[in-house]
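so i finally got all the pieces together for this one. its four components total, 292 residues if u count the protein bits. some of the lines might not be protein, just check the labels. i wanna see the whole assembly predicted at once instead of chain by chain like last time, that was a mess tbh
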Amino acid sequence: MKVNARELESLMGYNARRVWLAVLGRFGERMGVRGLKPAEFSVLLLVSHNPGITSRQLCASLDILPPNLVRMVHMLQERGLVERRAHPRDGRAVGLHAPPAGLALTREAVRVARQVEADVTGSLTQAERATLSRLLRKVAGPNPGR
Amino acid sequence: MKVNARELESLMGYNARRVWLAVLGRFGERMGVRGLKPAEFSVLLLVSHNPGITSRQLCASLDILPPNLVRMVHMLQERGLVERRAHPRDGRAVGLHAPPAGLALTREAVRVARQVEADVTGSLTQAERATLSRLLRKVAGPNPGR
DNA sequence: TATTGTTATACTCTATAACTATA
DNA sequence: TATAGTTATAGAGTATAACAATA
């Protein structure tokens, strides 16, 4: 017996979630063995591209709450992917930096992410893929922070 | 200090998640007072459109695990939005049906969902919105079930 | 007084194992 | 033996409150 899901599948929120879950699953398959989850990847990527970034800035950029970032940074630090250094101007803050190992894993993870993206959007033409990427980004918009 | 998130924001998975979170948040604001969460909405919608659908079919269609569906159905049942009836042919199974109250809330929730969708995609033209919807659906594809 | 970062904790969502009743 | 549905429970992800150190 076939289930009628037409109206549900016509909703963009529902489809956006399914696309996200598809990406999540495939990324996990390929990067899970390296112990890097999507959320940790996003943190590592921002640290790599923003040497000295603080926890507060990471939280605002990624819409993560400070208490939930602590464990992620701690994990990345324990694996030698991120270093914590005293902030030059603010004694309360800690600047995060990616040592060579962190930068290397970032590059590899980005390659995996792009490959996952290509796999998930395999049913699209190159032009459609570019359009989808552009429109999604336009809707997601700039992060207003908190 | 401006955070460089260019590469992160160029990833479709990341943007798909942000679009989903935007929809999630707005839907919660408007339907939360009615006690209907997005996951429960999807269950109610499928029951409304598929009278007699079983838990197993719901789980396969929505990619939900059976134990996690139990509470949702129970909640919907307690609110009089869903009814459980013995399956005509299979004594193990239970057919789910939406009484008038369930059908009414389904219609209202669909209206809210479409309004949320319009709000979230407010930065898009009508043509872009249609394109995004089509491409997202194409990527999300038919649910292969489990 | 406000902010950075942390701990402890709770709540939700999701996942696994084991059980029953029926097929 | 396999399947539908359930219970109990464990693991993630996400949320709030309260605190120490610094601004």
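Residues 39, 64-65, 67-68, 90-93 of chain A lie near DNA strand D (CB under 10 Å from a C1').
Chain A touches chain B through 56 residues (CB under 8 Å).
anyway lmk what u think
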